[in-house]
Known about the structure:
Layout: H1 2-11, H2 15-24, H3 30-33, H4 43-58, H5 62-65, H6 67-75, H7 86-97, H8 104-113, H9 116-141, E1 144-146, E2 149-151, H10 154-161, H11 166-203, H12 212-229, H13 233-261, H14 266-278, H15 288-303, H16 311-315, H17 322-351, H18 361-364, H19 368-379, H20 383-416, H21 423-446, H22 452-475, H23 477-490
Antiparallel strand pairs: 1-2
Helix pairs in contact: 2-22, 4-9, 4-22, 6-17, 7-13, 7-17, 7-20, 8-15, 8-17, 8-19, 9-14, 9-15, 9-17, 9-23, 10-11, 11-12, 11-20, 11-21, 11-22, 12-21, 13-17, 13-20, 17-19, 20-21
Amino acid sequence: MAGIFEMVDRMFAGVVPVADFLWDFPTNYAWYSGIPVLGQFSLAILLLLGGSFYFTFKFNFVQLKEFKTGLKLLTAKTKAKVGTTQLAAFLISMAGRVGAGNIVGVTGAVTIGGPGAIFWMWISAFAGMATSFGEATLAQIYKEKKGDEYVGGFTFYIQKIWKNKAWVGGGMCILYLLYNMLSIPVHTFHVFTAASSIANEVTGRVTQVSEPLYYIIAIAIVVIIAVITFGGIKSVVRFSDKAVPVMAALYIAVIALLIILNLNKVPAFVVAVFAGAFKPSAVFGGAFGVAMAQGLKRGLLSNEAGMGTATQASSIADANHPCEQGFVQAIGVFVDTIVICSLTGFVITAGTIWENPALDWDTLKLDKIGTFLTSVKELVPGTAMDTAVLIFVAVAFGLFAFTTLLCDLTYAEIAANKISTSKGFIGFVRVLGAFFFVPLGTITVLAGLQLDNLWYVSDLINVVLVFINIPTLLMARNIILNAYKHYKCSGGRRFVSSEIGIETDVWR
Length: 508
């Protein structure tokens, strides 16, 4: 078994340098990396960041002006005639946004760039809210009706914007399905990590992958995922409605408890964030550009604004106007980054484990989960509470990973409708995800292996999607702006696409 997995891993070894090159370009050239501050930012990050600030000004700070509107839409008691409610679509998008990266990624950003990275994370999130508004609005404009559901997303609107070429939509869909399916084993791995952490805390020892517990976990993951996935989009909606608020509330409650127990450290945290944003400590490299780059990058990659990967959720909502879902999805970026990621940042910063002489900081910081859990322990005053808090954190982390895993499968199904809406094809996509890629993730854990090279394929496709999605949004900027003007001028009445000079399948 190990030999087969190693062979598969070697097959994709050639992808690693390509993915690294594209994500790092042109920082991998000395002439560019030597430029102060700017040399820390790759083209992909500059596209995401530049696009976010451009849309912020283009749409006249829509993320500020319509924040209250988005909250009203989320709290309104409505029923969907077709598709889902706006709240349900929002919760599905949060299932995808709030993932393991909210802990692993933020921990990495702080350990590399220092607490100041959190400040720049906030900046990228604020600007990214405008991008999220734009892509969610565009997804709504070009959504399509399928029975009693809506389908759409960036694979649909990219085809429309690029002169409605069928091969463009089909090609983007294939790329996205590859990206999504190859991400599934990663999230499965994180579910296992959380489960093993819980087992270790409960038993007081390090459990081994050869123990029966791991096989039980593997079977449970496959069965539960299959049951929910084969129930279709509405089955996932029902699960997300219940699971997402619970996982978010659980994590916020646990970290809020840690904040209450460490109120004396809050002022130092605030000072560390703002001071470190412009003058990082030497223990984190001491370079201003590193803190900025890490914070901006983490914010962009965590909330997915501009990457197009959350637009499937935007398209399935039954809205009165496309901009409504844009307002709602902008709030998703706020909750994901400025709320949840900031809580993680507090734990790492307030824990200050780099000042503990009993710990080998240079080694520990390489283990992101280990760094986070060690920081949690530093903030818990007694051993009795120690175990309980760590278990709750592990449960939240596991839910983050599980809902992201489920969300990937659902997004894949929504996107697959661009190729074919037949029951047979959609069933094939479900089988492929639930009975091949999910088990692939479980088997690699049970075999004690990680298919790092296979997952690099996902990274490669991800950066390609960025290079396509941001230029598409720029091309469609006037369509989005005209839709927003229509919303403002009409007082939010029912949208008709011909009134802004375009024809769509739904908004007639």
